[in-house]
Specification:
The complex is a heterodimer of chains A (462) and B (232). Chain A has helices at residues 11-36, 47-55, 85-95, 111-116, 168-211, 224-270, 274-300, 312-325, 345-362, 392-395, 414-424, 451-461, and strands at residues 45-46, 67-72, 102-107, 129-130, 146-152, 158-163, 308-311, 329-332, 340-343, 365-372, 376-383, 428-433, 438-445. Chain A has 462 residues and is of the alpha+beta class. Among the domains of chain A are: 45-165, no CATH class; 308-461, 2-Layer Sandwich (Heat Shock Protein 90). In chain A, strand 10 (365-372) and strand 11 (376-383) form a beta hairpin. Chain B has 232 residues and is α/β, with parallel strands linked by helices. Chain B is 40% helix and 21% strand. Mean pLDDT of chain B is 83; it is low at 187-192. Classes of the chains: A alpha+beta (462), B alpha/beta (232). Chains A and B meet through helix 6, helix 7, strand 7, helix 8 and helix 9 of A and helix 1, helix 4, strand 9 and helix 8 of B.
Chain lengths: 462, 232
């Protein structure tokens, strides 16, 4: 195991940096917005307009923040501070009300508005409530858009007149946030993918190992956490492999040593008189087939034969042909398209043979089809046997597992070997319920198309 | 049919003896040798049709024996290995073995394989198509030993026994038409479901790889391959 020191910082540091950077960027953008956003012009309301609003008369008002009129049961909080007695007196006089029944207040606008519209003075004529002639406004310099005036009605309630609330800045903030999200989302997505890439690679490697025990070791680069996980994973993998190979080696050694005497026994039994032979041969033969099954399974899963571009249909046809020659009932569609895969011919032949073997053993006949999807070759072997309960459909792939096997004892390695071969080719074997029996479906990736051959494969795949 | 001779080369003398007794029961003349040296002596003195060769033996092993045995008209070699693997099968065939059998083999299995090799030897003698030789025609390369054709695109097409027999006959005499009866009769291993079906399947396989017109039908005469066939 290569313990190379990884260059990338640990995940925690990466996430920390990303978070801090995000805060800095967000704050900077806000400051930029504050500094460069255009000044919000305050609305102008003349004293006469306010008077008209109180009287309920029609008057020409500004488009932005027009004066609103409402009746409040009690004097609103806003009148607690910022009282403008001079203006209240003027207003009372204009409305013909008692001074005690009239309140006028002025408030500084929100800090942000002050900041964005700084530099305005009351003398610039941009203040909200322009006093009647003869009055001078008091209070600190600034905008006085946020004025409110109230008149006590005869029933003790208050009629309040003030400019409509300022929504423009809210709108600006919403646009700014949405814009920032649009701009930042791709960057954030890219960074998030980058940070989690080693995790995904690790998951893929772990998954590949689950499917193919001979998959290469998980790479140890990436952040420190991933490195540690990968090391632990690789150690576990090595232990499992050692365990499996030890067990297999033991079974193999036994099979190997028993093989020779058993073969001799078979030849001797074959020469005995027919009555005795008929009683001894089936058992001896069965043991021999089981041993051979173990030995070839052991070797199959160790095989790393070179891959060739192979007409899978011709391979299946050969397997079917050999079955027919042996007297089995196997049907294959003559019109099956020519399907090309990159594969180890001998291993794939074992795969198909094992599936045919099962189909014939559990049913009376097998139907074989070869088809192609845009990226996969599909070989289906359908039998007319009793099928499998759902719960058994994965279990039967385990080594040495057998379910309701009617024939002579087997080792239960056929499907295991078939799946091992399929997965080593980047495909899989699955069992599905068929119309009558069971369907064993093999999927294998199609060989990449090349030149003129691709045309013929596509044409015949149609 | 005159008596055929089988030579068993295996360091397990007890097994050789049992196998010999069994095969003799079926009318074969059987000789045994425990190693390569003994085998050489026997080959020098006897005409042998088939050698059953153990892959793993102390001293010179089966693969090395197989390699040095390559020569015209040598006996057909059936490689046997106790590690019963397909990889060994490939390796064995690549080094010139004609077939492979996994140990522990059963008596009938062995007998069937030996007989099949004797038949192949007869067919080879009749047609001149030999295993180990490759035949090129119209961009396709036929390897009778591996029972496969490499298409011009490089794709490998595997052949059934019947298709191999058919090709052997047709390639042995390009330009000569063989009648259906000829094909059915001349082929000792049998063309399975008849010459017509075998021809149509082989045609279909070749057509999928751009060789649709390789096997021609001569009206009233039969099937033929019309084109140059070269040995490689």
């Amino acid at each position: 195991m290569s313990k190379k020191r990884d260059a990338s910082p640990s995940l925690s540091v990466q996430v920390l940096i990303l978070t801090l950077a995000a805060i800095v960027v967000a704050q900077s953008m806000t400051l930029i917005a504050i500094r460069f956003a255009p000044v919000l012009p305050p609305p102008h309301h003349r004293f006469e307009q306010v008077v008209a609003a109180f009287r309920g008369q029609a008057f020409a008002d500004t488009d932005r923040r027009p004066l609103t009129r409402r009746v409040a049961p009690r004097l609103p909080q806003t009148f607690r501070t910022g009282g403008q007695p001079e203006m209240a007196r003027a207003l009372a006089a204009a409305l013909g009300a008692r001074f005690a029944d009239v309140r006028v207040v002025r408030h500084g606008p929100p800090a942000m508005i002050v900041a964005t519209s700084g530099g305005t003075t009351p003398d610039s004529g941009r203040q909200g409530l322009l006093p009647p002639p003869g009055f001078s406004s008091s209070g600190p310099p600034g905008n006085y858009d946020e004025f409110a005036a109230a008149l006590r009605l005869s029933d003790g309630r208050w009629l309040v007149v003030q400019p409509a609330p300022e929504w423009e800045w809210l709108r600006r903030i919403a646009i700014w946030i949405a814009g920032s999200l649009l701009v930042m989302a791709p960057v954030a997505w890219w960074l998030a993918r980058r940070i989690t890439l080693p995790i995904r690679r690790f998951a893929e490697a772990a998954d590949a190992l689950g499917q193919n025990p001979k998959a290469p070791q998980v790479a140890l680069d990436g952040p420190a956490e991933i490195g540690a996980a990968a090391r632990a994973f690789n150690q576990m993998r090595t232990r499992i492999q050692t365990y499996v190979s030890d067990r297999m080696a033991m079974v193999g050694a036994i099979s190997h040593d028993v093989g020779s005497p058993l073969a001799r026994l078979c030849f001797r039994i074959e020469r005995l008189e027919p009555g005795v032979r008929a009683r001894l041969m089936p058992d001896a033969d069965q043991m021999r087939v089981m041993l051979k099954g173990v030995l070839s399974f052991l070797k199959d899963i160790e095989t790393d034969a070179p891959r060739i571009r192979l007409d899978l249909t011709s391979l299946v046809a050969c397997a079917v042909d050999d079955r027919l020659a042996a007297g089995d009932q196997v049907a294959m569609d003559d019109e099956a398209p020519s399907v090309i895969v990159d594969g180890d011919a001998v291993a794939l032949r074992t795969l198909v043979d094992n599936l045919l073997d099962n189909a014939i053993r559990f049913g009376s006949e097998a139907r074989v089809t070869v088809t192609a999807t845009p990226d996969q070759a599909v070989v289906s072997v359908t039998d007319d046997g009793p099928g499998l309960p759902d719960s058994e459909r994965e279990a039967v792939f385990q080594p040495f597992y057998r379910y309701a096997d009617p024939g002579p004892a087997r080792m239960g390695l056929g499907l295991t070997a078939a799946r091992t071969v399929a997965r080593a080719h980047g495909g899989d074997v699955r069992l599905k319920p068929g119309a009558r029996g069971l369907v064993a479906e093999v999927t294998l990736p199609l060989a990449p198309r090349q030149g003129g051959q691709a045309l013929s494969a596509r044409r015949s795949a149609r | 049919m005159d008596t055929r001779t089988v030579l068993i080369v295996d360091d397990d003398a007890a097994l050789s003896r049992d196998v010999a007794l069994y095969l003799e029961d079926y009318g074969l003349n059987v000789l045994t040798a425990p190693d390569g040296k003994a085998m050489d002596k026997i080959l020098a003195a006897h005409a042998v049709d088939v050698i059953v060769l153990d892959l793993s033996m102390p001293g010179e092993d089966g693969l090395s024996i197989c390699r040095r045995l390559i020569r015209p008209n040598r006996p057909y070699i059936l490689m046997a290995s106790v590690t019963g693997t397909e990889t060994d099968r490939i390796r064995g065939l690549d080094t010139g073995a004609d077939d492979y059998i996994a140990k522990p083999f059963g008596p009938r299995e062995l007998l069937a394989r030996v007989r099949a090799l004797i038949r192949l030897r007869d067919q080879s003698a009749a047609t001149g198509i030999r295993r180990g030789q490759r035949y090129a025609f119209m961009g396709f390369v036929y390897d009778p030993g591996k029972r496969q054709i490499i298409a011009p695109s490089g794709d490998t097409i595997l052949l059934t026994g019947g298709e191999v027999s058919l090709l052997n006959i047709l390639l042995a005499s390009p330009g000569v038409a063989h009648s259906r009866d000829d094909l059915n009769g001349a082929d000792p291993t049998g063309l399975g479901r008849g010459a017509d079906i075998t021809v149509s399947r082989l045609r279909k396989k070749l057509e999928a790889h751009g060789g649709g017109d390789i096997i021609k039908t001569e009206w009233g005469a039969g099937y033929m391959i019309d084109g140059a066939v070269s040995r490689q």
